[in-house]
Design brief:
- By secondary structure, this protein is mainly alpha-helical.
- The chain has 3 helices and no strands.
- Helix 1 packs antiparallel against helix 2 and helix 2 packs antiparallel against helix 3.
- The N and C termini lie far apart (about 35 Å).
Length: about 70
């Protein structure tokens, strides 16, 4: 994906994505999950978890945005 992911393993990228999600940085989390899934060393299990997490974050983010637009 982006050049800033070079040198990180799929597992490291996944952990970075988890931290972004925990700190509510959803856009960064999605990018990191996608990078983890695309990493050359990503296992099928990690790809599955990362892509499922992207969907989850998008659902959460959609819910939050809807909430903010309709106080």
């Amino acid at each position: 994906m982006g050049h800033f992911h070079m040198g990180h393993t799929a597992e490291q990228l996944f952990e970075m994505a988890q931290e972004c999600r925990r700190t509510l940085r959803f856009g960064e989390a999605i990018n990191m999950y996608r990078a983890a899934a695309a990493a050359p060393d990503a296992t099928e299990e990690l790809k599955r978890r990362a892509l499922a997490s992207v969907e989850l974050v998008q659902e959460i983010n959609g819910f939050v945005n809807t909430d903010l637009m309709n106080p």
